[in-house]
Amino acid sequence: DETEFRNFIVWLEDQKIRHYKIEDRGNLRNIHSDDWPKSFEKYMKDVNCPFKIQERQETVDWLLGLAVRLEYGDNADKYKDSTPDGAKNTDNTAKNAEPLINLDVNNPDFKAGVMALANLLQIQRHDDYLVMLKAIRILVQERLTQDAIAKASQSKEGLPVALEKHILGFDTGDAVLNEAAQILRLLHIEELRELQTKINEAIVAVQAIIADPKTDHRLGKVGR
Questions:
Q1: Number of C-alpha atoms within 13 angstroms, CB side, residue 28?
Q2: What's CA 124's distance to the chain center, in Å?
Q3: 118 Cβ partners below 8 Å, 6+ apart?
Q4: For residues 39 and 33, is the Cβ–Cβ distance under 8 A?
Q5: What is the percent of the chain with per-residue pLDDT over 70, rounded to a whole number?
Q6: Which family does it belong to (predicted)?
Q7: Using 50, 70 and 90 to split pLDDT, how confident is the model at 102?
Q8: How far apart are the first and last CA of the chain?
Q9: Bigger pLDDT: 53 or 212?
């Protein structure tokens, strides 16, 4: 708002910068005058502001910096030993601002929250709650982000696999573990095939570029 901007400039000059004598501030204080932009432009030159009047945000930032510098210069002894309010209780502030950095893993509320999430997401319990929290993060990242949900929603055509027809190559001594290992191996093979497909696509793209080079005849000639 133009009126607020002009009032702001007048306030800065009256209260903090005080570059003009009081009797010389009349033109700047007359915020409803059509000549105010000229008075403001002269004021900027007088305080050596490096910006133009059209650069409002830069001008405001520069004038505020000047005001802070002058305020500090007038009250250096008062400010040099003062402690910011935000730093008086650093521990609590840090914990509130970055709760995961200053996480108290022994806090009952933390343990209860992790356990509730683990139960909700059907994650195996572990004695170390940080391990469970990491597992929750991985699951959320891989399964519950928007991209992951969209990818999972896409229908995939496939054929049913008879696990008994696939040789595992080793025996864990437990039928359930053997079956789980077979499933993991098949999933790993699927990932390798997807990777091979991407590699093949990259090779084809490179070959297409090599097969159709853009020749610059100025660089040389073919034959004698």
A1: 23
A2: 31
A3: 124, 125, 132, 135, 136
A4: yes
A5: 77
A6: Belongs to the RTRAF family.
A7: low
A8: 76
A9: 53
Residue 21 has what pLDDT? 92
Task: Specify the residue for token string 């059509």.
Answer: 34
Q: Which residue has the tokens 């007359």?
A: 30
Tell me which residue has tokens 């003009």. Answer: 20
* Long-range contacts of the stretch 35-44 (C-beta < 8 A, 24+): 36/6, 40/6, 40/9, 43/9, 43/13, 43/19
Task: Look at residue 38 and tell me whether its pLDDT is greater than 90.
Answer: yes
SS3 32: coil
Q: What length is written for the chain? A: 224
- The Cβ-side half-sphere exposure at 116, using a 13 Å CA radius, reads 6
The confidence band for 8, taking pLDDT boundaries of 50, 70 and 90, is very high
Which amino acid belongs to residue 143?
R
Summarize the confidence of residues 101-106 as an average pLDDT. 71
Instruction: For residue 110, give both structure tokens.
Output: 């933390």
Pair of tokens at residue 191: 């990932």
CA distances from 45 to 40, 48, 52, 57, 160 (A): 9, 5, 9, 17, 80
Taken in order 150, 156, 160, 163, the sign of the CA dihedral is negative
54: its two tokens: 């059209």
In 10 A of CB 6, how many CB atoms? 20
- At 92, the amino acid letter reads N
Give pLDDT tens digits for 146-192.
777 777 666 666 667 676 667 777 778 888 888 888 888 888 888 88
Q: How many CA atoms lie within 13 A of 75 on its CB side?
A: 9
